Predict the structure.
Amino acid sequence: MGYSSLYTGVTGIKAHGDNMQVIGNNLANVNTVGYKRSIAHFSDLMSVNAGCSGIRYQGGTTYAPQVGKGVRVAAILPNFEQGSMETTTTSTDLAIEGRGFFGVRNPADGSSHYTRAGGFRFNRDAYLVDAHGLRLQGHAVNRETGEVESGVTDILLPYADVENASGETVRVIQSPPRATSEASLVVNLDAQNGDKFVSSGSPLTAMFQAWNTSSGASFGSGNSASMNIYDADGNKHVVTVHYDPVDSSTLSGADGGTYWEYIVTIDPDEDGRSGVQGTSTAGLLAMGVLHFDTSGKLVGQSMYTLEDGASDKVLSNWSLSSLSEDGTPQIPVVFAGASAGTAQTFSLDFGLSSQTGTWTNVGSNASAADLGTDVSSLTTLGDAKQATNITTARPGTGNYTLFSNQDGHTTGYLQGVNVDKDGFVVGRFSNGESEKLYQVSLYRFTNEFGLRREGSNLFSANGTSGEAQEGTAGEGGRGSISQNSLEVSNVDMANEFAKMILSQRSFQANTKVVTTSDHLMSVALQTKR
């Protein structure tokens, strides 16, 4: 009996000593970022039949009495309860709100590990790493198409070696220049200046006829709006649209609305179209008519551009412009000195587009030469659709730009990095552009409680946890990612101290069992003597 009780007490001392180790480790990591507290789960060790006759229960069955042989720690399991979030000032400090783990790779041996500690920084080689140099894993984003690529890889900033003005080779991250392909210009027009350009035979093309190379940017239309667009080299050019109301008394077939002629121009010296330089056409990119209803909203539009190979400012050389996939008129242009005279085309949206991608009422209006005084059959956009922002013409409201936008830009250099809730690493460039560079991967496991702790805030997968299941934020039950945040330890100090006191008392009680059993054995030996 003495030996058995001595053994039982020793198992209690060992088990509660191990529990104290778990509690101590939790308290030691109370300030460890991403730490998940552990919980010791106890079970009885075993039971043996006691050396006495059995006990008969109702029904006649006899059971031998059993005596327990102690306790053991059955398992020490992590608790993956969400820790609170601590705000930081570093955009690459990341926290997962919900389930999932960051994946990191050891470049030394290629081994993969998983962590909830999101304190990442870019190292000198431009890899996004944790405090131990392990590289965060994610999907690269194709910079040409914007598509997320399939393979998982180290997150590495796309540095390139370029030569600076001093001839030195430096490493930079560039946002390459982009030629403008889409532009929107929405204005409010006020006919306060009256019909400034008049032509009795062709009132809808009077301003077109008045344009000349010497006037250029100083062309005195009285109503104009300008915006910047970019060529393939990232050079900025100013595009100006001039408007002029047409006196309704000079028109026939009017429906009570108003009609405005317009021209689209650039600086004549920047016009690189073949054969245009030195002619009165230089700088004149497009012309057309805008039709507004009685409420002042744009309901019809035509646009004519210079035919290929033509150079003279003759109305018959100006035909209906092509339409983009979105049904907006397109303008071809060649900027002088830009990529050796590379041609580009950009659409210009005034807030009206064709849902069918066609012009209607073409008939006798195939070229600008057919524009006369009858507006009842003006060519216009087929099945026209009005945008939320649309050009208007309202008297007494003044001339001003409501909205302007275009998709081109000059060369830019990386100024900073953000990470959004979907895990996209977004670069911010000096040209005002933002570009998705990577998407951070998040991992789940069939049994996350089976993950093996490796120290340094790391877990590794094994047969108990199952293989890592890679995905992205918000996918398959994975949480979202929060930048400028770190998940702190989920250790509750008050709870740990309460468990410490209970474990201490249990340990002391088991030492009493040992000392008492030892005393009983001593008494038994003395009795024999």
